[in-house]
Give the backbone structure.
Amino acid sequence: MLISPWMSISQNQESLGEVLDSLYREDQFYFGVTYNLVRSKPDGVAQTGFSSGFHFGFIRDFPVNKKRNLAIGIGLGYSTNSVNHNLLVQENDAGAYNYELVSTDQFTKNKFSLDLIELPLEFRWRSSTPESYKFWRIYAGFKIGYVIRSTVKYEGEPKDFKLKQVDSFNDFEYGLTLSAGYDKFNVHVYYTMNSIFDDNSLLDDQAIDMSTVKIGLMLYIL
């Protein structure tokens, strides 16, 4: 008679523990660093120096099976990206933008920077369990971002200048994402599907239809 109540309490505690463990979520905060590789460059356009990106945000994890190793992730993030290159972007007196190629001998810095608010959507597979904090993962998805800040910075001949809120950049950026790895650190690729510049941006009467592939490391926690 004395043993039975204690056995009942113990069983209830174990059941409660199982319920709590079965509701775990994974990888809801992320931070990433990427190298921004420009593709589909017009003839003569080249990258100069290191072009970087920094990405962070929150993704709500929604497991879709009993084992909770399959999930959908929907989130909100922020990223800042820069590209160093030899394409000179200038604003004329009429407020329009002109584009021309410049020799690397003429400048020490020529880059544009874009800051974006991003909405990532991920389809997630992982080898996680309620007891394991180290596991394999493959997350594939889609991301769309809205440009909230754009700048062009030039240091060189004939004079230094800086442009802010440059209208010739596309307002949106979107593309496919893939993160894969083990434990906290993972290889990350973001393949953007639209042009950096809008349709009115021309170099020698041809559209500047450049886009980026961002390759780097992604850290997931909690």
Remarks:
- The first helix runs from residue 3 to 21.
